């Protein structure tokens, strides 16, 4: 018995399924390109064993602990936020005894993939076998075959991008380079902490950026110079992209005089909430201008109401599974930026959304027109088999395939990377197989498309 069926996610009808199998066979062994994610360069710099199953599967993965929390299991019971876990076996028992909660979710697919393909488990996780699971995983984690660098090679990863604050020294990336290991692990420039006035510690962060770059970042021109120079350093370290997690997709295109005046208000703390949103919008346009100059690809991830649970935020801080999608406008919000840069062929802006209603109404028509725009894959709550299929069905008819950029795993959970890419490859094979069966596409075109969606479009969009 196996945890995973070999035909999982393929179409139910025999003809489409047979074609999907053939398409999948042609792409399942291709290398993984992960141009956007949240793994830690420290793992690969130090190359030390992962400490235990809980720190590997439960604590870093908000998909896991947010589901458990939704059923009344406290963060304290899961020892979330603790540097050292006092009772890892008990945390694992709680996780295992509630594994049924993940039925029908993509998390279940990812976890079962890791349990079966990496640890050889063929019996579904439950409270009864929890300790056997724990012992098997814990023992294997202490072997050389499960060191981070060995797993990176085993997963056939060609490129892995981390996500980093402009204030990061990138010492771990430097250590990887100096170690002689040939893997390509690159940073991504994530400037939210120094461009969002509502980010905790914003003024201190701006001041630190100035000290780092030798610029007066409390002046508009000095602030922009510091950001541009920091981007150049990231680029020297292999960075190919920036990433922007703004509450909305609003952009602005103020004159230099107006922008400088607004920046002064922000620094003095006299700006109203509406002004702070305008400032964020102006900074997206400034970042697009810098991307046109330095060649970094720009990713915009709007539409998340972050840290919605005030109690969890106060106790545990940011990014603890309490982020909620919100409706997002792109057509009018992006217009100032697009009026200025939308027709630039040498600029790449990749748009993501948590608002699926915008796929066919806004995003596909925008990307199907403006040369600078591409559509990012389904993100976060929609990084699922059904979410991926909805994206293909709603975006392809207007934007086609070649205004998209392949797949991003966007994960903190390292061992889920091959599982996530496998799901994406199976869904693309299923979608293309159905198109061939319906005589909407010839199979030789589907073969080429499957490879482009897996590798070609990713390399092209992210300049890899």
Features:
464 residues; alpha/beta; TIM Barrel; uronate isomerase, domain 2, chain A; 4-stranded parallel beta sheet; 20 helices; 50% helix
Structure overview:
This protein is α/β, with parallel strands linked by helices. It folds into 2 domains: 14-48 and 147-461, Metal-dependent hydrolases (TIM Barrel, Alpha-Beta Barrel), CATH 3.20.20.140; 50-144, uronate isomerase, domain 2, chain A (Orthogonal Bundle). It is built from 20 helices and 9 strands. The chain has a 4-stranded parallel β-sheet with strand order 4-5-8-9, with helices on one face. Helix 17 (358-367) links the parallel strand 8 (349-351) and strand 9 (373-375). Helix 18 (385-399) crosses helix 19 and helix 19 (417-437) packs antiparallel against helix 20 (443-461). It is globular, with a radius of gyration of 22 Å. The two termini are 40 Å apart.
């Amino acid at each position: 018995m196996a945890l995973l069926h070999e035909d999982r996610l393929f179409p139910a009808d025999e003809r489409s399924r047979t074609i999907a199998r053939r398409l999948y066979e042609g792409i399942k062994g291709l290398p993984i390109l992960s141009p956007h994610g949240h793994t830690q360069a420290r793992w690969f710099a130090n190359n030390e064993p992962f400490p235990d199953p809980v720190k590997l599967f439960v604590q870093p993965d908000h998909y896991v602990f947010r589901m458990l929390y939704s059923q009344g299991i406290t963060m304290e019971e899961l020892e979330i936020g603790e540097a050292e876990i006092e009772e890892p076996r008990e945390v694992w028992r709680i996780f295992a005894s509630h594994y049924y909660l993940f039925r029908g979710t993509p998390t279940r697919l990812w976890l079962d993939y890791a349990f079966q393909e990496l640890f050889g488990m063929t019996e579904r996780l439950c409270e009864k076998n929890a300790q056997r699971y724990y012992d098997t995983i814990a023992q294997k984690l202490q072997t050389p075959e499960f060191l981070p660098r060995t797993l990176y090679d085993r997963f056939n990863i060609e490129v892995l991008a981390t996500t980093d604050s402009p204030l990061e020294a990138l010492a771990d990336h430097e250590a990887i380079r100096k170690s002689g290991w040939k893997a390509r692990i690159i940073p991504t420039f994530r400037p939210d902490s120094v461009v969002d006035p509502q980010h905790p510690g914003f003024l201190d962060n701006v001041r630190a950026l100035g000290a780092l770059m030798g610029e007066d970042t409390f002046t508009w021109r000095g602030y922009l110079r510091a950001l541009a120079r920091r981007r150049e350093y990231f680029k020297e370290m292999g960075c190919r992209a920036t990433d922007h997690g703004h509450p909305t997709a609003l952009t602005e295109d103020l004159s230099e005089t107006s922008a400088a005046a607004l920046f002064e208000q922000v620094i003095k703390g006299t700006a109203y909430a509406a002004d702070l949103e305008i400032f964020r919008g102006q900074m997206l346009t400034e970042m697009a201008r810098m991307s046109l100059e330095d060649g970094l690809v720009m990713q915009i991830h709007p539409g998340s109401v972050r840290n919605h649970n005030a109690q969890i935020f106060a106790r545990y801080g940011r990014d603890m599974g309490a982020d909620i999608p919100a409706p997002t406008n792109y057509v009018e919000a992006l217009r100032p930026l697009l009026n200025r840069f939308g027709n630039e062929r040498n600029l790449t802006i990749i748009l993501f959304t948590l608002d699926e209603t915008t796929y066919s109404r806004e995003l596909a028509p925008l990307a199907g027109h403006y040369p600078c725009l591409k559509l990012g894959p389904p993100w976060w709550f929609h990084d699922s088999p059904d979410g991926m299929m909805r994206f293909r069905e709603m975006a392809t008819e207007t934007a086609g395939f070649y205004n998209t950029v392949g797949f991003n795993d966007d994960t903190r959970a390292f061992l889920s990377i091959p599982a996530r890419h496998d799901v994406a490859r199976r869904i693309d094979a299923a979608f293309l197989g159905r198109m061939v069966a319906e005589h909407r596409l010839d199979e030789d075109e589907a073969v080429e498309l499957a490879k482009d969606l897996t590798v070609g479009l990713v390399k092209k969009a992210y300049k890899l």
